[in-house]
Write a structure and sequence with these properties.
Elements (H helix, E strand, L loop, with lengths): L6 E9 L2 E6 L3 E6 L13 E7 L2 E6 L1 H5 L11 E6 L4 E6 L1 E9 L3 E3 H4 L6 E7 L2 E6 L7 H11 L3
Parallel strand pairs: 2-11, 5-7
Antiparallel strand pairs: 1-2, 1-8, 3-6, 4-5, 6-7, 9-10, 10-11
Length: 155
């Protein structure tokens, strides 16, 4: 979410029966999940790559990053393709729930609640409950991003 948040839209998605969101400005598309091809030498949080219309996109294992239990790919799972400042990433999610408006009074930056939380931008209060909003650019550490760049150079 932007520092001067007045009102922004976010795509709400579910993962392990919990709600998360990503600013809609980061979302490129939502697709039916497909089998992910392992990527040798990639950081542990990258479960592999997918080919989306000729573009090879690394896929982040959000379950691992968030400490959620692993599960096999299911028929209803989706792949959320998102663009950060540095790269495009795929996120495997259980499903997209919809778009929610993030207004300043309903959004609490994560640093105000839990200092040092790296991959979250904040918490959104909504009619659906509390939604954790991801910071796409903080999803990978600098070391993970460097390792991913090296692994992707061979693709």
């Amino acid at each position: 979410m932007s520092e001067t948040l007045n009102s922004e839209l976010a795509l709400v998605f579910s993962l392990d029966e919990r709600l998360f969101a990503l600013p809609l400005s980061n979302v490129v598309q939502v697709l039916r999940a497909v089998e992910v091809t392992p990527l040798p030498q990639a950081p542990a949080v990258i479960c592999g790559v997918v080919n989306v219309r000729g573009e090879v996109i690394p896929v982040v294992n959000l379950r691992q990053r968030l400490g959620l239990p692993e599960k096999a790919l299911a028929l209803g799972d989706q792949l959320l393709v998102a663009q950060g400042r540095r790269r495009r990433l795929g996120l495997l999610v259980d499903g997209s729930v919809g778009v929610s408006e993030c207004r300043a009074p309903d959004f609490m930056p994560i640093e105000a609640l839990i200092p040092g939380t790296s991959c979250l931008a904040g918490i959104l209060k909504s009619a659906q409950g509390m939604i954790l909003v991801h910071d796409l650019d903080a999803l990978l550490s600098l070391d993970e991003a460097d390792t991913l760049n090296e692994a992707m150079s061979d693709v």
